[in-house]
Amino acid sequence: MFSNNPRHLWQRYLVALVLISLSIIVLNFAPKANLNAVEASAEVIDTAGRQRMLSQRMLFLATRVALDEGSSKATYQQLRSATSEFALAQKQLSKARERRDRAAHSEELLKLDRLLDEKVAAFVKIVRDIETDLKPTERQALLNELIRLGSEGLLGDLDSAVQRDEKYILKKVRRAETLANAAFILALVVMGLSVLLIFLPSHRTILKFLEDRNTFETTLLEKNQELEEFTYVASHDLRAPLRGMENLVVWIDADLPEDTTEETRSHLVLLRSRILRMNGLLSDMLAFAKIGKTPPDVSTFGLRPAIEEVVTWVDIPDGFTVNLDPIMPMVTASRTVFQQIGLNLLKNAIRHHDKDTGRVDFKYSVEDDRHIVVVSDDGPGIPAEYREYIFKAFKRLEARDKVEGSGIGLSITRKLVASLGGTIELVDPPKGETRGSTFRLSLPIREPSEVMEASAAA
Amino acid sequence: MTPLTILAVEDDDVDLMSLQRALREIRLVNPVKRAIDGVEAWDHFFDDGDKPREDCADIVLLDLNMPRMSGHDFLKKFHEIDNRPACKIFVMTTSDSDQDIVGAHQYDIAGYLLKSDLVESLREALEDLEQKWALIA
Q: Do B14 and A236 touch (CB under 8 A)?
């Protein structure tokens, strides 16, 4: 149903969220619906209670009127107002009860309530009739009728009506309770299901993912370690016999008899060059493997002096000039790594140049919050289709015997640049130039304070 | 006065030839003995494993990368013996990392010799030695 990919865990969580939200909504609204009805019913009971009180008061007042010929107007007034209130109450109750009974689709209850209405109407009529001037006998008859209605049927019916009201309320309350319980159980079930179907599997997925990652990391570290050892042994132990070979060649060459042919001598020269080449290759391999292993010595240094120093390390042929931008800032990075990069680029520019004169320029600028160093020359240049190719390890563009070089130089350079947090690429020559290679080096601008904190933490 | 003897501890024959030629070039004609690894070097200095001998070399040129017992192992064991014979040990290195590693252990060595430039290294080393011994003598 769900994928086990950690990236898709959000699907599970979304379903869980929806289910839990639904549970909360049901839990909240279901009982409330019934409790609203209960509230309405409570009002009804309140009114019914008052009505009951009124009916007794009416009876009492009516009796007083009946017994006392000379009843004061006041008593009549009280009787009249009590009767009005009573009638009003009945009207309210009648409406509410009718609504309720229709909602419950109960014909029986409707009938009962209508019956009560009629009885109450009759009662009220009688009370109102008493007020008019009547002959004592008629009045007495009415009163008797009133008392009979009142004490036997009406009060009882009023009570029954209230009982029905109470029963209704109880029913509603119980239903609310049941719904609340049901909703609660539903919520528990949803929680349980969520945990079982969603959270536990998610948790397991995450753990498994972490475990796989761990295994992967461990394997990777092991492999790395193996590779390092292998590289070290390979380059170190391979160079020992090479050293012996070179020495022997030198000694043989020194001891060659006078009449040795040119051919034989040239063979020895070639032998020596091949040995040197192999040594160079191993040297480069070792250097490549070492990059990033030693912690960098970060410092804040002047860019220009650093490059000037690099220029002194290189044997610049006559006819070649190296130009540096006059204004260059202070930079926070590893000075040795930066100089290594500069050295590689400078040596490359000179080595691959096809003329007797030439120039190599080091230019500086700032772009997008980064140091930009552009190293360009006026050599033969590199065709655009090879711009990424040249950075690959061991890839060369010229025949081995035309230009010495393992092909590893630029890949080392790129790795070194990466260790500084920067990028290097071959770009189009500046406007107006038709030939030459232009290397663009982009380095992050670091504050010296960052470095202090980093080294303090280390 | 008997001339100082030199012990060359080197397993590679061609490297040994290099060493001999270098010594010839700086006109050092002292007798040179050879041990092919740390074990042989040990036997040169000690009888029965731990009894110092009398007639051992005064100067030792010690290669690091050897079978059975490497230069490192030899140095470690040698320095554990308190009554070891007095001699000046020069370590022959092929790279900077060799120097770092050996230096890190702070063995009592007289200096480093770069295999890639034996003649110069030897010359410097022996000039240093001469000065030191001149002071003592």
A: no
Q: Which amino acid is present at B121?
A: S
Kindly report the number of other CB atoms within 10 A of residue A336's CB atom.
14
- pLDDT on residue A200: 86
CB B8 within 8 A of CB B35: yes
What is the reported pLDDT for B128?
A: 81
All domains in chain A, ordered by first residue = 6-205 (1.20.120), 294-457 (3.30.565.10)
Question: Rounded to two decimals, what is the model's pTM?
Answer: 0.48
What single letter denotes the amino acid at residue B71?
A: G
Distance from CA of A310 to the nearest CA of B (A): 20
Lowest average pLDDT, out of A12-21, A132-141, A156-165, A260-269, goes to A132-141
Query: Whose structure tokens read 């290679």?
Result: A437
Distances from the Cα of A103 to the Cαs of A38, A44, A92, A100, A258, in angstroms? 14, 16, 17, 5, 130
Measure the CA–CA gap between B88 and B60, rounded to whole angstroms: 6
* Interchain contact, A240 vs B15, CB within 8 Å: yes
Those residues whose C-beta lies under 8 Å from the C-beta of residue A240, and which sit 6 or more positions away, are B12, B15, B65, B94
Q: What is the mean pLDDT of chain A?
A: 82
**B77: Cβ–Cβ under 8 A, 6 or more apart, which residues?**
B38, B42, B69
**Which residues does chain B have within 8 Å of residue A239's beta carbon, measured at their own beta carbons?**
94
CATH architecture of B6-136: 3-Layer(aba) Sandwich (3.40)
Look at the block and give the residue holding tokens 């008392």: A147
pLDDT-derived band at A373 (thresholds 50, 70, 90) equals very high
Residue A179 vs residues A20, A165, A196, A245: alpha-carbon distances, Å: 17, 21, 25, 95
Question: Which residues does residue A371 pair with via DSSP β-bridges, in sequence order?
Answer: A366, A443
CA distance B82 to chain A (A): 34
Q: What six digits make up the tokens of A192?
A: 């349980």
| Cα B91 from Cα B99, distance rounded (Å) | 9
Q: Which tokens hold the place of A100?
A: 């309720």
- Taking the C-alpha atoms of residue A43 and residue A157, their distance in angstroms, rounded to an integer, is 19
Asked if A79 contacts A127 with a C-beta cutoff of 8 angstroms, the reply is yes
Q: Is A284 exposed, middle or buried (0-12, 13-18, 19+ CB in 10 A)?
A: buried
**With an 8 Å Cβ cutoff, are A247 and B18 in contact?**
yes
